Amino acid sequence: MEHQASLQLTSSGADYSAHQKIGLAFIGVGLLALLITFLGEGALNPTVTLALSLAGLLAGSGILFVRMLHQPAGVNNNGVWFSGATARGMAGWILGIVFTGFYILLYWTPSNLEQLIRGTDALSYAIRGSAADQWFLYGLFYTLAVLVMGIRMLIKYRDNRYQILRTISVMFFQLGLAFLIPNLMVLLNQPEFYFSYFWPLKYDYLWPSTFSSLTQGPGLGIFLLFWTAVMTVIATPVLTYFFGKRWYCSWVCGCGGLAETAGDPFRHLSDKSTKAWKIERWMVHSVLVFVIVTTLMLWGNQWMGGGLLGGMSQEFSRWYGFFIGLIFAGVIGVGFYPVMGSRVWCRFGCPMAAVLGLLQKYFSRFRITTNGGQCISCGNCSTYCEMGIDVRWYAQRGQNIVRASCVGCGMCATVCPRGVLRLENGPLEARYNGPVLIHHDDMSVQLDETWKQSRPIMPPFQEDLPILTDDDL
Amino acid sequence: MARHIVIIGNGITGITAARFIRKLSDDRVTVVSSETDHFYARTALMYIYMGHMRYQETKPYEDHFWSRNRINLVRGYATQIDPGQKVVGIADGNDIAYDALLLATGSQSNKFGWPGQDLLGVQGLYGMQDLALMERNTRNITHAVVVGGGLIGIEMAEMLHARQIPVTFLVRENSYMDYLLPKEESALINREIAEHGIDLRLNTELKSIRGRKTAEAVETSQNERIECQFVGLTAGVHPNIDLAKASGIGTNRGIVVNEFFETSLPDIYAAGDCAEFNADGIGSRRIEQLWYTGRAHGKVVAKTLCGHRTPYRRGVFYNSAKFFTVEYQTYGDVPAQPEPHIRSRLFQSGRKLLRINSDRESGRVLGFNAMGVRLRQDQCEAWIRSGTSIKNVLASLVKARFDAEFYSNAVYRQAAAV
Lengths: 473, 418
Description:
heterodimer, A: 473 residues, mainly alpha, Alpha-Beta Plaits, two-stranded antiparallel sheet, 59% helix, 2% strand, globular, disordered N terminus, disordered C terminus, B: 418 residues, alpha/beta, FAD/NAD(P)-binding domain, Enolase-like, domain 1, 3 domains, 5-stranded parallel β-sheet, 11 helices, 25 strands, 25% helix
């Protein structure tokens, strides 16, 4: 049998590159058509050029994905740190600038995107009943990015059912609840409502202005109010108790959906240092406080008939919308994918993540369990953690990982070469275990008290992270 | 007064010892390494070459960790020890005085005197310098040969494959790693190797390496000539005892130690890959060269170094590996060859395999092999330690599952059906 193997020699590198070239050619044509649409000034029908562009991009991506199918299933992060696009090289910076630039045009000068917007008119009339605006264009691009890169995820992780189900879930919620249904609701003369976003991420859903427009508006308003209140106040803590924040962040949320699909090639770029963790805790909880204060002030203002701080509360809410909702979530959150990783917004800015994180840390059954002493400290888990958690730090000392920021994407467990990590919704007891390396009891003869007392009192050993105990001796 | 404990080698053994000395005492701790400035995970060398990680990602602790915990790191090459003066000679002249010394010098790659083994383009893979060399040696090459069917061999084949360099893999045995793996496990890995397009040559040994300055071809025991520009020598490792030998410390294959890791000279200890337990030691395996044993040695020797003389005791054996995409875990006693007193039950479904061994007479469970499925270490060990009957183990096997949620339960269904 040993010589049969030689028939399968991978000297077909040349085929791969021919294959790749065809795929890249289609993507090139797609990008060119996109540029023509963008600059076209109506010389060519933008609907036609945009359709051509999307067709080229989809076909090219499809051809590149087929190549992935030819490789055996299994974790494959080969060359991630060699490619400029995924290792902050020139291509990565260019991508970052293009993404960021798109957000700037979208928010500040959408008139520059006029031709692209017109290119989506036909679709907008079909599902929304009106001409497109920049938000329709944005929603379309966003949804396509989640779907196309979602297919890439499904191929890349095709031997891992957790990743498959999770990816299908975010694709479903983005396409259905964050794109089709809100638009169809407009078509049916209902409020444009996003069923998969809740306060405090969708901060204005608990603001008095939303309440009044929903109660006074047409049709479903009362039901929508009921939905938003139930999801925020009841479903969020209950689901987080049973499953951790992952039920939302890596299964439902649109921001998470984009990060988990389009952001997957950049997940390793998150900063794992304890310094970054410190900044993260300050920032994300500050944003949460900001949104709570804003919401309370708006209700106070409403209650006092505008008497609270005059127009200041309105001003406050506009600021929040601009700095957090637009700049942070959009420009930095997505624009900086190729530089700071895919979860910058979720990690440093999202108030929903902050709430879910507090619930996850203190009122949840979820944890990542570490498998005894099997960790080899290789660092794949930490590297591929998009939230910048130094997973290895816990794994190598046999400690469970209970962290507010963990979105439960499961990638640490997926890339672990030794089967050390497992996402679990276990019982609350022993959820926080001490550092327990297996063979603990074999090797550590109980130190007798006199010996302990004869030793000088030690300054605390600085393991960097706050832990429950430090006595794995 | 605080003593000065000096550790030669910043691998898993030396660093584990340093960390635990710091936890246990206020002694001064210095770790000397000629390999890298900071501790990195040797197990991740392959991932650097494959582009999954960079050197900085393989460092398990941030650089400020060491100074904050007053663990002094010295980059230097220890040339000799003067046990009388209690001084370690360092190549750059900055010799270091010690009160206690731990040698954790690790291993070196085996070379068996093959003709041409010192040609350019021929190398082993053990440390960071080897990786840098491999990076240079494999640039723009069209074919590579890897010699030796062990863990490093298959890792090297995977590394080269990841860079799309065609690989011929020479394995002396009838089947990959059949000296450690039972027949079915070994066959599964043979298939895995072939499916990745590796030219696997079983029953084949290296005869010689040809070339003028650099390697141009290898000749095999099957009298075949394989053109190549790179030859990876991965036929095992042996303890690195150069420093101990040069300093008059007792050595055999490794640095000879007792169960307290004490060498033949006072205040000098050796642990990890480089140590060899003496005849009065602790059982059949005299030299232990696993990541896990290195870590365990470091932890135990730290206690002795801090004045609490503690013997090393083995627990239930465990190990793990990953062969291309197939994960492997083993717990307890799973010999490669069938043994009369062992009853072996095998559950297999495609690339997923679960083997459970039990004592033929008493029915007590003895060991587990898992491929493509993950088992919970504490549960497997608890069963083995308590001698739980195979019947009870099979009935409650789900307790040992550590697979990701929604994972295939094919092998567990088979086991439950017994």
